[in-house]
């Protein structure tokens, strides 16, 4: 599963990859990510939300998670 998630993240747009990694891998709060990227907090939240949806969509298409699931394992 970890490899599938990593592959899905690699397929994301660069800004989505960055936000996903800063939030999930480094545990940074939205405000710190926004400051680091010089973007509004709302933009960071939107990018993270879209990144998660794209990762979930890829995992569903690969049969890694059910259609009902809404969260990453």
Tell me what you see in this structure.
The protein has 73 residues and is mainly alpha-helical. Helices cover 68% and strands 0% of the residues. It has a single domain, classed as Winged helix-like DNA-binding domain superfamily/Winged helix DNA-binding domain (Arc Repressor Mutant, subunit A). The protein contains 4 helices and no strands. Helix 1 crosses helix 4, helix 2 crosses helix 4 and helix 3 crosses helix 4. The protein is elongated and about 35 Å long.
Nutshell version of this structure?
By secondary structure, the chain is mainly alpha-helical. The chain has four helices and no strands. It has a single domain, classed as Orthogonal Bundle (Arc Repressor Mutant, subunit A).
What keywords describe this structure?
73 residues; mainly alpha; Arc Repressor Mutant, subunit A; 4 helices
Total count of strands: 0
Tell me the number of helical segments per DSSP (H or I, 4 or more residues long): 4
Superfamily (CATH H level) name: Winged helix-like DNA-binding domain superfamily/Winged helix DNA-binding domain
Along the chain, the helix and strand elements come as HHHH
**CATH fold-type name:** Arc Repressor Mutant, subunit A
Number of domains: 1
- What's the N-to-C terminus distance? 8 Å
Tell me which oligomeric state these chains represent: single chain
The overall average pLDDT, rounded, is 90
Strand content: under 5%
The major pleated sheet works out as:
none
Structural class: mainly alpha
Instruction: Evaluate the radius of gyration.
Output: 12 Å
Query: Which percent bin holds the helix content?
Result: 55-70%
